[in-house]
């Protein structure tokens, strides 16, 4: 706490936003005066926050009380000194601090998504390995829309006009929103978020931000805060930013591609490369693990009903767990690189995924392949979009069923977490089913 106190004092901070990420990735917590934060050295929150759905509901009572104390007790949330950031858009000097969740005995709470990522990183550390990741975040800018029944529209840029058509990699189309992106970059720099390239993606007013490679926990924290930052920058400029997986009909979905590699802790050398620079057995086993277990871990990477709208054949999103070198039709792509920088790009996670859980799930799948010596299929040459290669669940319901019965996920993430996560997503799915869509009204109302 002394380092935290010094950081706060040097910057004349008056308020602290104490944050934890729930299962969805929503920032929950308390806003407190800096004096109270320093005195209490953390905060208390109901443990039930970790079983809250995106709609604000909770899981059924039988599951709720089997996973939580019947008295609905508080958990102890302790600030991570390495996860303190300024809030550059705040009117008063404000800091945001990411907290870790513990029970009253000081044990990490299994339902915490940040703790889950730490568990996976500990598995790698026990083998003398250190994973490295680099996320790529896609998102849409849209007009602000108060009526959720209305389709989203492209925003108006500096030219006073809406974007029309596909503008992949267009510099001028991206420059339409320069004032917004200048604030985004300034605010990210103020927070130390290590963002890199901005590009215009394939969709209308769809963009992508790349993060520089680094420690998985630090990068998950940064993605968590980046989503907040971008939304604030968009609101300042009277537009909206969305990380929904498929927010616009007939437009590409938004992904969170995860580049991942593994180095030896002692030597710093990539375990994905042999001495001659070729692909190592550990690299191939890592791919084998991703192929084997992603279909069971998919809800961690595609967590919502809307997530599965990305997985359509002949679109920019993969519908398989095939792998290939420089092949974007594969769910698992090996980019061209030096031997030391050899990595696998997992193209399946959506931008709507919780970064802690998507990264944890992706790394866990690769780890299981490495420790169990799983061999991958042959790499794909050419297109991999054919549905005969499809091994993934088609719907969220199917995906949750497979996740629920995956013994390796239960073993390494814990039965309590798997049960709680599946229960939260099933409640959200039931809420979705209660809403009648415009498609149903358009095509079924007067025809059936």
UniProtKB/TrEMBL annotation:
InterPro entries for this protein: Gln_synt_N_sf, Gln_synth/guanido_kin_cat_dom, Gln_synth_cat_dom, Gln_synth_gly_rich_site
Does this UniProt record's set of keywords contain Ligase? yes
Stored SUPFAM superfamilies: Glutamine synthetase, N-terminal domain, Glutamine synthetase/guanido kinase
Domain GS catalytic: start-end pairs: 113-448
Question: Which cofactors?
Answer: Mg(2+)
A matching Pfam family? Gln-synt_C
- Keywords, comma-separated and alphabetical: Ligase, Magnesium
Q: Which Gene3D superfamilies match?
A: Glutamine synthetase, N-terminal domain, Glutamine synthetase/guanido kinase, catalytic domain
* UniProt family annotation: Belongs to the glutamine synthetase family.
PANTHER family registered for this protein in UniProt: GAMMA-GLUTAMYLPUTRESCINE SYNTHETASE, GS CATALYTIC DOMAIN-CONTAINING PROTEIN
What is the name of the protein in this document? Glutamine synthetase
